[in-house]
From TrEMBL:
Residue stretches of each ANK repeat: 84-108
Domain SH3 residues, every copy: 1-28
Protein name: Osteoclast-stimulating factor 1
Main location: cytoplasm
Name of a matching Pfam family: SH3_2
Gene3D superfamilies: Ankyrin repeat-containing domain, SH3 Domains
SUPFAM superfamilies for the chain: Ankyrin repeat, SH3-domain
A GO term from the CC aspect: cytoplasm
InterPro entries in the record: Ankyrin_rpt (IPR002110), Ankyrin_rpt-contain_sf (IPR036770), SH3-like_dom_sf (IPR036028), SH3_domain (IPR001452)
Keyword Signal: no
Keyword Cytoplasm: yes
Length: 108
């Protein structure tokens, strides 16, 4: 199901959603898509921004400080799987980040 309030846009190889009225207004940039979703009441996009994808990629990249911050998010689903069935724990273990694996296991 498509939401006409948001358009998919790509810039410098990165794809994301853009409020459709920004395109009509020919705005130069969106500072923070998460803030825009909150400001405009776009609950489904806000939920997508807050799911565990950020945790997965932080674990995949070995960014312990980022993982630590994300683990404080109360609604984070640690065992959420991506389309391939992988979790943040899988990413950290596969990449050899034992310290992050330990953090995830301690969290639950």
């Amino acid at each position: 199901q498509s939401d006409t309030n948001w358009w998919k846009g790509t810039c410098k190889g990165r794809t994301g959603l853009i409020p459709s009225n920004y395109v009509a207004e020919q705005a130069e940039s969106i500072d923070n898509p998460l803030h825009e979703a909150a400001k405009r009441g776009h609950l489904s996009w806000l939920r997508e921004c807050l799911d565990n994808r950020a945790l997965y990629w932080a674990c995949h990249g070995g960014h312990k400080d980022v993982v630590d911050v994300l683990l404080t998010h109360a609604n984070l689903e640690l065992n959420q799987q991506n389309k391939l069935g992988d979790t943040a724990l899988h990413a950290a273990a596969w990449k050899g980040y034992a310290d992050i694996v330990e953090m995830l296991l301690e969290k639950g």
